[in-house]
Amino acid sequence: MRALAFLFTLLVALPAAAEDIVLGLSKDTVSIDTSFDGSEILIFGAVKREAPIPDDPRLQVIVTVAGPDETFTVRRKEKVLGIWVNTDAVEIDRAPSFYAVSTSTLLGLSLSETEDLRHRVSIPRAIRSVGAPDTIEDATRFTEALIRIKSRSNQYQLNEGTVSVDEQTLFRTAIELPAALTEGDYQTRIFLTRGGKVVSKYETSIYVRKVGLERWLFRLSRENALLYGIMSIAIAIAAGWSASAVFRLFRA
Amino acid sequence: MQIYLPIAEVSVNAFLLLGLGGIVGVLSGMFGVGGGFLMTPLLFFIGIPPAVAVATEANQIVASSFSGVLAHLKRKTVDLRMGTVLLIGGLVGAALGVVVFNYLKALGQVDLLVKLCYVVFLGVIGGLMFIESLNAIRKTKSGKAPARKKHNWVHGLPFKMRFRVSGLYISVIPPLLVGVSVGILAAIMGVGGGFIMVPAMIYLLGMPTKVVVGTSLFQIIFVTAFTTLLHATTNFTVDIVLAVLLLIGGVIGAQVGTRIGVKLKAEQLRILLAIMVLAVCGKLALDLLLMPSELYSVGAADGH
């Protein structure tokens, strides 16, 4: 009896189970080597379902990729005694270092406000800021500034209509990762929505890692900082000396 | 050719960095300035995080100064004795400067004070040098021999020491004080301090211009090596890939610059340095005075 009741609640609570996501990635590891200059990841998949395709409303797909969270300080300049000075500062407690949202149609059409709030899908929702001091009334403008500046360097992307969906079953999109990329696990989420409601959700991770020389140098600089510092100076001295020696050879 | 920098975590064009290093290297060899006051803002401009730019720049200056000093040692235009005295002062000053810097950071607005420091010092030094060298050039043109002030208050102080290469017999107090104040400013402004030291050596200590350049470079090597080590062990912000690219350009540039410097007359050298110093000063002043296109800036939490 209890088992039956449990099954019933499960069925009511998760109508989403009717449509499942089967996902593929062109690669689940991005290697940052010396010649790394950005990368493109192909995210594709299919919708698995037991029942026939519900006709209305149409199926929409949203794909988000989020880099590791960081804390930022956003400062604002103001004119004081004729010169431009940083005055107010707001700390953004948690914001992804990279964030991309790709949708099959306009984000506003494929996701309702409440669902956005619950799943933190749109760029402003992915940022959390609670640390604004009382003296600053327009704290939201600092968050807007963060989004504006990060969008300019392609680190925040809103790509509406870039997910193509065929026959409400197959979907695919490409996410452009910029050259300035932080190491870490990039959380990738796929949402299926109908009429603004999330009907199914799938999560996976893309691993962004430094490899080879990049990895070796980075680790050395953190784990053996003194040696790294001495090595840097030694290289500098050696380079200075060899340049001088080469030039002397030319003159002789 | 794009290259990914492991510590800065950005991808930049390798040839751009080689070119920047080269240009700054030429200036470094010509004038005996490390070039940090030019290179650091340039690195900010191409998108290197400020903390990484400042620390890596110190490392690059070690290379170009070393390369420059070797060229100067060959033609015996380094006053090692004077350099050592300046260095002792410089290290004391750098330590004091770090204390001052941290105090200012606690007060906030350290960025502004650094910039104001730049504008004031570059403006005053550049202006004075420009006027002085213009007068000197005018005098040589009119046929009069440029009179070097042989005796001022500096020569009345105790603890005298003979500096043969510079042809001076003066008290060690003024060079020590010059070293200390340059060290303080260098630590606050994040540069080698050559652009302050060179004029101070010429005008305060009365050293001959030809010796000044090599001696300044000699002192800068040690101060910047010390700074590099400090940054590498405390902030982990020295990017060696960035440094290598900059210094390949830099050391070649320094050799070229030293040779150009020898060909130029002392007054011409000084007036060029003055113009360059004034240009950087003007740029920084404009940044403070004009409304920026983006009022907001994003930084890592807690400054660094």
Structure description:
The complex is a heterodimer of chains A (252) and B (304). By secondary structure, chain A is of the alpha+beta class. Chain A has 2 domains: 16-210, Immunoglobulin-like (Sandwich), CATH 2.60.40; 211-252. Chain A is built from 7 helices and 12 strands. In chain A, the strands form 3 sheets. Chain A has a 6-stranded mixed sheet. In chain A, β11 (184-194) and β12 (197-210) form a beta hairpin. Chain B has one domain. Chain B contains 10 helices and 5 strands. In chain B, the strands form 2 sheets. Chain B has a two-stranded antiparallel ribbon with strand order 1-2. In chain B, strands 3-4 form a two-stranded antiparallel sheet. The mean pLDDT of chain B is 79. At the A-B interface, β5, β6, α5, α6 and α7 of A face β1, α3, α8, α9 and α10 of B. β5 of chain A pairs antiparallel with β5 (296-300) of chain B.
Overall geometry of chain A: extended
Q: Could you give the distance between the termini of chain B? A: 30 Å
Strand content of chain A: 35-45%
Oligomerization state: heterodimer
Largest interface: A-B, 63 and 60 residues
Low-confidence blocks of residues of chain A: none
Biggest β-sheet of chain B, characterized?
Answer: 2 strands, antiparallel
- Give the tally of structural domains of chain B: 1
Q: Please state roughly what percent of the residues of chain B sit in beta strands, choosing from under 5%, 5-15%, 15-25%, 25-35%, 35-45% or over 45%.
A: 5-15%
Rg of chain B, alpha carbons: 19 Å
Arrangement of strands in the largest sheet of chain B: 1-2
